[in-house]
Amino acid sequence: MGRAPCCDKVGLKRGRWTAEEDDALANYIAEHGEGSWRSLPKNAGLLRCGKSCRLRWINYLRDGVKRGNISKEEDDLIVKLHATLGNRWSLIASHLPGRTDNEIKNYWNSHLSRQIHTFRRTYAAGNDTTVTIDITKLTAAGKRRGGRTPGQSPRSVAKNQQTEPAKTKTKDVGSSPTLPAKAKDVVVSTSSASSSPPQSDGARSVVVDPEQNQPSNGVSGSVSHSLSSDGPCSEDETWPLVMEPVDQTGLLEANSAVDQTGLWEANSSMNWDGETEMEALLSGGVVPEGPAQVDDLLDMDWEGLAADLWDAPAQNDVAQPAEPQAADSQELDWFVSWLLSDAS
DNA sequence: AAATGCAGCAACCGCCATTCG
DNA sequence: GCGAATGGCGGTTGCTGCATT
């Protein structure tokens, strides 16, 4: 049996708050202080649920609450913290003065979750030439505002994706937090010839073999193609995902982690011949089939891959980028400080 | 100009943790 | 120790404005 509702909701006003209601709430709290939310509406003469009053106060009326205009620095910090802490919005908000968990949550859902898909991909043509492809430009031509495509609204996509739910709140841990792997560049490479594993401390590699139906070894999973409507991916395909600690010739290798701004970033370097594929990529056209299987790269679900990496158990004693197991706020603060110390 | 549908955001809902009698 | 009350959190819904057709 669930808990009784915080109020009976009978005769209570719902929806947007009016200026008069805001004034009444602010005046009451200024006079009597916060707390006793259940009895507050009646005492303040508001036809609102106490919970609604609390939310309104915390998110909008409280002193020091900043609204809108999230700066680049705040943006970076949100992404970085989210990459490590997950959907613990209140925890993230505690490191952004004046910002509320609700605003950060909304900002993430409406802005940043999309930006995750706009990672860069860098193609090296076997020499020193490096071209960075901005996926946003590749997909911009197909972007439109009007006209709904069934099943592709952010909400339906979110439902389809069903991202990993936030970890349960952890209160008791050992004396020192378990550190996640430090942020590293995401490097995706297709290596038909020898290539040194782009992996260093804390970063792990992932081998994705689209031709292979069974995972060969390592940690298996699947890469689901269900990105946002902006993405180039179809919705139904899945690939077997094999996580390998070492490079393997001829397979797509993804070495994924979080870059220094916290954004999931994918750089692709590959050995290929000719500029045909590059031109096709830059024009947003179909890439001819070749040894590099560039279209396979384009169709990868990098976010799903990242999630798989994030949740996969550590191998070969590589540090697991797990959530911090901080026992209390002090240790958590320490962890966040440690995390942010890598920002430069 | 009207219809359609996306994007942003405020608010609601349900659950869990903590506090208190 | 127990149960109710309360606070807090994250997920979700639904409204509104605007861009596009």
TrEMBL record:
Keyword Endoplasmic reticulum: no
SUPFAM superfamilies: Homeodomain-like
CDD domains for the chain: SANT
Polar residues bias locations: 150-165
Residue ranges of domain HTH myb-type in the record: 9-61, 62-116
Chain spans, region Disordered: 139-238
Compositional bias per record (Low complexity), positions renumbered to this chain: 186-196, 216-229
Gene3D superfamilies to which the protein is assigned, alphabetical: Homeodomain-like (1.10.10.60)
GO biological process: pigment biosynthetic process; positive regulation of DNA-templated transcription; response to stress
Compartment annotation: Nucleus
A molecular-function term among this protein's GO annotations: sequence-specific DNA binding
Keyword annotations: DNA-binding, Nucleus, Repeat, Transcription, Transcription regulation
Entry GO CC: nucleus
PROSITE patterns to which the protein is assigned, alphabetical: HTH_MYB, MYB_LIKE
Annotated ranges, domain Myb-like: 9-61, 62-112
Repeat in keyword set: yes
Highest taxon of the lineage: Eukaryota
Coiled coil segments of this chain: none
Chief location: nucleus
Alphabetized PANTHER family for the sequence: MYB-RELATED PROTEIN P, TRANSCRIPTION FACTOR MYB8-RELATED-RELATED
Protein's name in the database: Uncharacterized protein
Lineage of origin: Eukaryota, Viridiplantae, Streptophyta, Embryophyta, Tracheophyta
